[in-house]
Amino acid sequence: MEYGFDITYVFKFIPKLLDTLGITLLIVAGGIVLGLAAGLLVALPRLYKVPFLQHLSVLYVSFFRGTPILILLFLFYYGLPEVLKLISIDITKLPVLWFVVITFGLHAGAYISENIRAAVLAVNRGQVEAAYAVGMTGYQAFTRIVLPQALAIAVPVFSNLVLAMLKDTSLAFTLGVMELTGKAQTLGSLTQHFIETYLSLALIYLVISMVLERILLLAERKLQRHMRPDEGSGSRSAGRRGLSLGRLSAKPRPGQEGGVRL
User: Fold this and answer.
1) Are the beta carbons of 159 and 220 closer than 8 angstroms?
2) Could you tell me the residue range of the domain that residue 213 belongs to?
3) Sign of CA dihedral 171, 174, 176, 178
4) CA-CA distances (angstroms) from residue 253 to 24, 79, 250, 257, 258?
């Protein structure tokens, strides 16, 4: 039996797919939180040149950045329980969703650590030395000088990471997690309207990505407000300069002496 394309199914499937949106967003949120914690811990040894630990950080980053996320999902789901059994820890009864969040979090941590390291190193060292010169402590110099600028530098790359993770959550279906893509696959199999199902799925991903992109763009602009010149004050100062130059270049009236009176 053949099933022709029917646009009405696209709109019928959207509410059904939205039932699993919470699982997808949970994977993204959990992965980002775990990734931020892991990324910070991995970035610190490389920033402060801690012996031995910085080499472990490099190994961690190389492994997770060089291994596809799908392979990591299989390694953690099937391999981690077997490794922990060697030290008498049984995690075989944990929900599959836990393994997915852990995998996505550690995978994101590798990229976030590089993002943190690059953002901190991008801040001019002379500003930190100036902060020490005026009596600031190391903590004050970091929180007041380095951190605001590093956050503004890191947010654009972090935004790309969040959007990429949102799309990578579709791989969680390979372990049986019923998120958006898993639900779409099930609907397509039941109705045999695969094109309509995946069009609905694409629209949902597009809308979520646009919303997240807008939120992250607002956060980026807020963090970078101190790095942009004040347009209002710039125009006012330009006006004052133009007025002063106009006065200086104006021809003296009859009976008046030229030049600037000191």
Assistant:
1) yes
2) 7-229
3) positive
4) 76, 91, 9, 8, 8
| pLDDT beneath 70, residues of the chain | 1-3, 226-262
CA distances from 44 to 23, 92, 120, 159 (A): 32, 33, 10, 22
Query: Which tens digit of pLDDT belongs to each residue from 137-187?
Result: 878 888 888 888 888 888 888 999 999 999 999 999 999 898 899 899 888
The residue with tokens 């002063």 is: 244
Mind giving me the DSSP string for 19-58? TTHHHHHHHHHHHHHHHHHHHHHHHHHHHTT-TTHHHHHH
253 in a domain, yes or no? Answer: no
The answer as to whether 212 is a domain residue is: yes
| 60 found inside a domain | yes
The Cα 43–Cα 254 span in angstroms is 72
Q: How many domains does the chain have?
A: 1
Q: What is the pTM of this model?
A: 0.80
Q: CA-to-CA distance for 200 and 213, rounded, in angstroms? A: 20
User: CA of 160: how far to CAs of 53, 213, 240, in Å?
Assistant: 28, 9, 42
Confirm whether 259 is domain-assigned.
no
CATH code, 153 = 1.10.3720.10
